[in-house]
Design goal:
Blueprint: H1 2-22, E1 27-29, E2 33-35, E3 39-41, E4 47-52, E5 61-66, E6 76-77, E7 97-100, E8 106-109, E9 116-117, E10 129-133, E11 139-143, E12 146-150, E13 158-159, E14 165-168, E15 176-178, E16 180-183, E17 191-198, E18 205-210, E19 215-221, E20 226-228, E21 237-243, E22 248-254, E23 261-265, E24 271-277, E25 280-286, E26 314-319, E27 326-329, H2 335-343, E28 350-355, E29 361-366, H3 370-374, E30 382-387, H4 396-425, H5 434-447, H6 473-479, E31 488-491, E32 496-502, E33 505-511, H7 520-530, E34 541-547, E35 550-556, H8 564-567, H9 578-598, E36 602-604, E37 613-615, E38 621-623, E39 630-632, E40 638-640, H10 653-658, E41 660-662, H11 663-679, H12 695-704, H13 722-735, H14 746-754
Helix pairs in contact: 9-11, 9-14, 11-13, 12-13
Keywords: ATP-binding, Cell membrane, Disulfide bond, Glycoprotein, Kinase, Lectin, Membrane, Nucleotide-binding, Receptor, Serine/threonine-protein kinase, Signal, Transferase, Transmembrane, Transmembrane helix
Membrane topology: Single-pass type I membrane protein
Family: Belongs to the protein kinase superfamily. Ser/Thr protein kinase family.
Length: 797
């Protein structure tokens, strides 16, 4: 019997061991990984942290949801505006995972291997950190015994018990605003059109805002208690309003902790209250238009009066959409979201949904004539949703107006022909192929890669010149959600830049501002130049749009924004090690070499600066903003202008003083960029104890005295090479020499970087390096240009 007893003891030990292993952990420590099919579960089994995807957002996100929620609707999303790539891919080093990195920071990674730092606003100072999901739904990052970062500081669309909404650190430079922001749709977690929180101006009000500026007050602090304009169905919710010199916020807790309650700001601007009763979730909708709202409120925010002549109601009929003026693309959204896209655009007459083989939804939006549409009623098996009345009685009007329509159609053809000739004179091609061909060409460009051997890489001036799609204004409006503030990326001299969406591809939309100093000349210049230039280190222009006074350019989207958002940011500059900076410098040099030598015409950029260098998902540099570029034809080496435009700190002395520009002018700008990348400091507003006017003079003094290492960015001490550092500084100083003829060509520069052991010429002292700061005042001949394509940094959530 003893052997059996021994076996039983061993069996129990192993059983307990495997039970412990199978129990989900609530924490992630340094060096541990959480892969896409694994989760963390809070100690009490209330909340679960893991990766998720949806039919509408297949790329995947990291989120938190209630463990007992069978739908696993996230209450918090870490990367709501930065979806992961190839989420369904295999696991491994190139898979999707969450980890505590070597430096103690919590990061998400996918096959791009570009870390997404969750605790971006509070970086760890050591690797003694651990991440824990609590029963409150709060994900915290502990450094030792101190809380370094927590997800409750960055709410998404859900208001949980214990979470605070309001203003914090009010008397410091680190003011933090905590708002709820709705999802883009019921299944897409990207930022939507609504926000909820305390009014920053009148701190006693609790409002819901819409991206167009409309708002609705839903609660207030009367000096004694906080009151909502609707009554919560839960009797045991205690709301607390805190107001002091440092913070103002609203929070709530629940007396009965066994029955959780929470609030969600929906994608259509309504407020839903959820309660979990056992394994079931109950929901109560609070529409801002219900009778429960106080009479003193500002009225209904969601149901605004229709701005469309056909109204906002749709009637369904059996039939098919005409082939003309139909914009269709397989966006993975619900049919309800397709209706929203059509309803929000008055040019959209009808829409239809069709199922795809991969389970997606084909959303078709019709922008043509309603009469043409009604001719096809009953001729197809699809369900078509028509704005207004879709009855066949409307078709009787066609008999009366057939001659008028024929006449209008004839006039329209003449107008389109004249418009095509005008567009063709501007160098804008592709319009004659129709909207569908333009969309197909745009998708082809989005799907192509940056490989130099790609068949889409076409030399300027050949017979196969790159065609530029001409897109409708309604498409631009739809793709940017009517130029919503939530989609705005930045503002430059040309005008605002918005993020747009086409299929699963992101695009950048640059819209000419009416108040912009840039005008039709710069617009035409950029269209004619950059549309025909194809190089992996030049930003790709995908299309354009001219609609009345609107002038719009569509570019490939650069997820890492502009280089200056890294180099000059005290925190993000740490993410660029020396190898990456060398890679960026060499990429800029290759792009300039193509412009100066290998394109058919010699192109001078004239506004090369660090903010006009964009970074793609793999940190590859791309030169952008060709609005001020000029062409030197034939054997022409330089040209002169009476209109000196550009950005001070980057303009060569011969250009500033005499209006002379050449390839050497771009070389000077390149030299400034190199020194800024090496040092992490701006040339224009540089001040040092040696009284140098700018960064160039400071670099010259250090190089001359053999102290190059002192110019190096302090964050690169452990990652840079002294030899390559000295090479970069010497090349930069050669490029910024006073005499244009003494500067190297970009061919020379590329050769210098390729042959590190070769002997280089000795640079001469750069311009203005020993002058006082008063000297630059007479040089202002015109106001320098702003960044025509820059992007604002977005905080991670």
């Amino acid at each position: 019997m003893k052997p059996w007893r021994a076996f039983s003891v061993v069996f129990c030990i192993f059983s307990c061991f495997f039970v412990c292993l199978s129990h989900a952990s609530d924490s992630l420590r340094h060096g541990q990984y959480l892969y896409r099919n694994e989760t963390l579960v809070s100690a009490g089994g209330v909340f679960e942290l893991g990766f998720f995807s949806s039919h509408a957002a297949p790329n995947g996100y990291l989120g938190i949801w209630f463990k007992n929620d069978k739908n696993q609707k996230p209450v918090w999303v870490a990367n709501k505006d930065s979806p992961l790539m190839d989420f369904p891919g295999v696991l491994g080093s190139s898979g999707v995972f969450l980890t505590i990195r070597y430096d103690g920071n919590m990061v998400i990674s996918d096959r791009r291997n570009i870390p997404f730092i969750l605790n971006y606003g509070a970086l760890a100072s050591s690797n003694n950190t651990r991440a824990t999901i609590r029963d409150t739904g709060n994900l915290i990052l502990m450094e030792g015994k101190e809380i370094l970062w927590q997800s409750f500081y960055y709410p998404t669309d859900t208001f949980l018990p214990g979470m605070k909404l309001g203003l914090f650190n009010m008397n410091t430079e680190q003011l933090r605003k905590q708002f709820l922001v709705s999802w883009f749709s019921a299944s897409v977690p990207a930022d939507g059109s609504y926000a909820l929180g305390i009014d920053p101006v009148n701190n006693t009000q609790f409002n819901v805002w819409r991206s167009d500026g409309a708002y609705q007050q839903i609660g207030l602090w009367d000096g004694h208690e906080f009151k909502f304009f609707f009554q919560s169905t839960s009797d045991n919710l205690n709301f607390s309003f805190v107001w002091n010199s440092n913070e103002i916020y609203l929070t709530f807790n629940k007396q009965n902790t066994s029955m959780p309650s929470w609030f969600v700001l929906t994608s259509n601007g309504e407020i839903d209250e959820f309660r979990m009763v056992g394994q079931e979730i109950e929901v109560v909708d609070y529409s801002l238009c219900d009778d429960t709202m106080a009479r003193s409120s500002n009225g209904c925010l969601v149901a605004m009066p229709s701005a469309c002549s056909g109204g906002d109601n749709f009637s369904n009929t059996r039939g098919s959409l005409p082939s003309s003026m139909v914009l269709s693309w397989p966006i993975r959204i619900d049919p309800y979201d397709c209706e929203i896209l059509c309803r929000n655009n008055c040019s959209c007459v009808a829409y239809a949904n069709a199922s795809l083989q991969d389970g997606g939804t084909l959303c078709q939006l019709y922008y043509g004539n309603k009469s043409d549409l009604l001719k096809l009623v009953g001729t197809g098996n699809s369900t078509v949703y028509v704005r207004g009345n879709a009855s066949k009685s409307d078709r009787k009007l066609l008999v009366v107006t057939v001659m008028v329509i024929a006449l209008v159609f004839f006039i329209l053809i003449l107008l389109l022909h004249r418009l095509w000739r005008k567009l063709n004179s501007l160098g804008i091609y592709g319009f004659h192929n129709g909207m569908r061909d333009s969309m197909r060409l745009l998708l082809l460009q989005l799907s192509s890669d940056d490989n130099a051997s790609s068949p889409n890489v076409i030399e300027l001036g050949t017979k196969k010149d790159h065609e530029l799609p001409f897109l409708s204004f309604s498409f631009i409006v739809t793709s940017t959600n009517n130029f919503s503030l939530a989609n705005k990326l930045g503002q430059g001299g040309f005008g605002p830049v918005y993020k747009g969406k086409l299929q699963e591809h992101d695009i950048a939309v640059k819209r000419l501002s009416k108040n912009s100093r840039q005008g039709p000349l710069e617009f035409k210049n950029e269209v004619q130049l950059i549309s025909k230039l194809q190089h992996r280190n030049l930003v790709k222009l995908l299309g354009c749009c001219i609609h009345r006074e609107e002038k719009i350019l569509i570019y490939e989207y650069m997820p890492n924004k502009s280089l200056d958002s890294f180099i000059f940011d005290p925190t993000k500059r740490r993410l660029l090690n020396w190898t990456q900076r060398i890679h960026i410098i060499e990429g800029i040099a290759q792009g300039l070499l193509y412009l100066h030598k290998y394109s058919r015409l010699r192109i001078i950029h004239r506004d090369l600066k660090i903010s006009n260098i964009l970074l793609d998902a793999y940190m590859n540099p791309k030169i952008s903003d060709f609005g001020l570029a000029r062409i030197l034809s034939g054997n022409e080496c330089r040209a002169k202008t009476n209109r000196v435009v550009g950005t001070y700190g980057y303009m060569s002395p011969e250009y500033v003083m005499h209006g002379l520009f050449s390839t050497e002018s771009d070389v000077f700008s390149f030299g400034v960029i190199v020194l800024e990348i090496v040092s992490g400091r701006k040339n224009a507003n540089f001040h040092e104890s040696d009284h140098s006017l700018n960064l160039l003079g400071h670099a010259w003094n250090l190089w001359k005295s053999g102290r190059c290492v002192e110019l190096m960015d302090s964050t690169l001490v452990d990652s840079s090479s002294t030899d390559s550092l000295a090479l970069c500084i010497q090349v930069g100083l050669l490029c910024v020499q006073d005499c244009a003829e003494e500067r190297p060509t970009m061919s020379d520069v590329v050769s210098m970087f390729s042959n590190e052991g070769a002997a280089l010429p000795t640079p001469k002292q750069p311009t203005y390096s020993n002058l006082t700061t008063e000297v630059d005042k007479p040089l202002r001949r015109e106001v320098p240009s702003e960044n025509l394509l820059t992007f604002s940094a977005m905080e991670a959530r």
